[in-house]
Amino acid sequence: MTIRRQGGIALLEALLAAVILAIGLLGTIGLQARSYSALSEAGMRAEATIAVNQLLGMMNTDLANLDDYAVAKGAQPDEKLATWLEDTRARIPGAEVTVTLARAGGTTRTAVTIAIGWQRSAASQRNTHRVTAYLAEST
Description:
Layout: H1 9-60, H2 79-91, E1 96-103, E2 109-118, E3 127-136
Helix pairs in contact: 1-2
């Protein structure tokens, strides 16, 4: 009678290594997808910052007519903002813009709050980039 040795341990080790490799690759793919999403959101936020700076520059050169720049949520902007809003929506698809003005009593200072909101995809959350700046007329 001969004694048979147990075989196939190398095959089991190779199979286990393949499973561990597959788990690592799935984790890497998941991280890559999340980093792509974060990069896209950062790009939209940068575009919103540029748009806000452009609008503040326009408002700063037209301080006498600041009230014309106010835009309520969902409202159509004045013709002064039509080109700016068109450019902003070209860079940030589906952008919603609100501009609120609050004059400080007894001063020439006006607080301007500009909010640009967007949603990258239907499954993602809505993002809003909000900037408050203070404009003052020189006396």
